[in-house]
Amino acid sequence: MRLHELSPEKGAKKSKKRVGRGVASGQGKTAGRGTKGLNARSGGGVRPGYEGGQMPLQRRLPKRGFRNLFKKEFSIVNIRDLNRFEAGSRVDGEALRAAGIVKDRDKPVKLLGQGELGVSVEVKVAAVSRSAREKVQAAGGKVEVA
């Protein structure tokens, strides 16, 4: 058997219905679309979610909550995560990403005060909590908010 001798199984291939090819064809004139109306037009048909004039589901369901468009989202880093850096090192967003502590490149970094800090580091982040600032300074480090 050769490649050019292959053919599909009998009945596997069906020719498409040719609509609008004369009255005698059974699908002529209006091509099975009926007479006039939204679905008879080219490009016609209702949009997704349209319920024929009934109040749509999206409007019938109660709405809840509020999404603040201007909320700032931070990548959170805790004090305990800074213990892996060497004493006297500068810790900023890039250093945290390089260490694998922060994943998201787009979000600014906020330092929170969970855990204890055993090394003296110089921290430069977008935001810092009061307890985190106190713990860094108590360990002999500095905090800079950029």
Q: What oligomeric state do the depicted chains represent?
A: single chain
Task: Characterize the overall form.
Answer: elongated
Strand segment count: 6
User: Helix-strand pattern, N to C?
Assistant: HEEHEEEHE
Order the strands across the largest sheet as they lie in space: 1-3-5
CATH architectural arrangement of the domain at 75-145: Ribosomal Protein L15, Chain: K, domain 2
Mean pLDDT: 94
CATH top level of the domain at 75-145 is Alpha Beta
Query: Major beta sheet, specifics?
Result: 3 strands, parallel
Mind telling me the C-alpha Rg? 34 Å
CATH topology heading of the domain at 75-145: Ribosomal Protein L15, Chain: K, domain 2
Structural class by sheet pairing and helices: alpha/beta
Strand percentage lies at: 5-15%
Low-confidence blocks of residues: none
What is the terminal separation in angstroms?
Answer: 74 Å
Number of helices: 3
Proportion of helical residues: 10-25%
Give keywords.
Ribosomal Protein L15, Chain: K, domain 2; elongated; 13% helix; three-stranded parallel beta sheet; single chain; alpha/beta; 146 residues
Question: Care to describe what's here?
Answer:
The chain is of the alpha/beta class and 146 residues long. The protein has a domain at 75-145: Ribosomal Protein L15, Chain: K, domain 2, CATH 3.100.10.10. Helices cover 13% and strands 14% of the residues. It has three helices and six strands. It has helices at residues 57-60, 93-98, 130-138, and strands at residues 75-78, 90-91, 109-112, 122-125, 127-128, 142-145. The strands form two sheets. The chain has a three-stranded parallel sheet with strand order 1-3-5. Strands 2-4-6 form a three-stranded parallel sheet. The chain starts with 56 loop residues before the first helix and ends with a strand.
